[in-house]
Fold:
Amino acid sequence: MPEGLSETVLVIGLGSPIVSDDRIGLEVVQRIEDMNLEGVETRQEAVGGLDILPIIFGYRRVIIVDAIQSKACPPGTIMLFNPDDFAPTVADASAHSVNLATAMALGRQIEPDLMPDQVRFVAIEAEDLLTVSEEMTPAVEAAVPEAVSEVLRLLGLEVEGA
Structure:
């Protein structure tokens, strides 16, 4: 177990505030931030690939909330993943096209003592990741409270009215 990692849990919302359903990670994390939970740090980021590594370095536990578009389930569906769930997608790539799974794998190779012991992904199936809009689609907007509850569950908290 790496020494010196922060016991504060980092909850990161990924997305763009101006691209319809891509903003859901930001919305969920804003609600978590508004709760002022002890032992929880929140960040809202519009990064991907290798840029996630310096953000997560030094934390023992990290929860990442983001939109996903698998088209395998209805919009608004909430899915939980571990980094191992993405192992088949780890590939050789340029630094500009690295997905989160590849970034995690590279992080474990280049800075194993700084990488979190546990990373969990809360992914919400998106309907629209192309439209420039500050509004989410109705199905994705409706998933925000359930996604907040899922993050709280991962934090080991049960909060009424989340």
Remarks:
- The first helix runs from residue 24 to 34.
- The helical segments are 24-34, 53-56, 100-110, 138-142, 144-154.
- The chain has one domain: 9-154.
